[in-house]
Design goal:
Layout: H1 6-17, E1 57-59, E2 65-67, H2 78-85, H3 103-117, H4 122-129, H5 135-138, H6 143-149, H7 151-167, H8 176-196, H9 202-209, H10 217-223, H11 229-245
Antiparallel strand pairs: 1-2
Helix pairs in contact: 2-11, 3-8, 3-11, 4-11, 8-9
Amino acid sequence: MAAGSRGQRIAHAAHTLMPRAWRRAPSRIDLCGPPVCYNGAMPRPHIKPQKSSARAWQRMLSGRRLDLLDPSALDIEIEDIAHGLARVARWNGQTSGAHIFSVAQHTLLVDELARRRAQPDTRARLAILLHDAPEYVIGDMITPFKAVIGDGYKAVESRLLAAIHLRFGLPRALPAELIKLIKDADRASAYLESTRLAGFGEKEATRFFGPPPEVPAAFEKDYLTPWSAKDAEARYLKCFAALVKD
């Protein structure tokens, strides 16, 4: 080998050790081809991706094992839903009070607000009670972060909700009128929660969630004082039992 600088000798040795298929000097950036050696640096070996062995299921206290990507209605129990929702925090836990403001408590607040706006029948109220039920396994993600993640979260959430609806005898797709009622009551609930518990000002809350709902002081004291997980779970199950009994 002809004499040269130390860097040139290293580059030559690297080129010699490189697999023959990699010994080329591309004229463009190639994202699909083999790794390329620039300035004598050794390329990283190309590793063929392996199939993931990570599990995608959740073990429940009932003993059920729920596949999060392909959920079966047979693996869904209301006791698991109530237990989970009573321990999932709204607003990422950034609320005042001795306890978290749970998704279970939020759901019951939405149910009460919906009943003040309309007269939903038993099946409609069951749909309201279950509208956030997928969060018992995937958690309550704040809206700004859902926007960052994109459609992946929504797809998992939709599959779970469809399985939950099937489990409890609800249609996969709810009527547009009921969907609107749930969304309106959900926004009213968000206004109350944000201003009473999460530190929002009234103008800010109105901009995000619409005008404030009118509720009695006793109602507000009960539903906007965070319950313990035990109480939230018990009240959620009591409401469910009343609905399926009718």
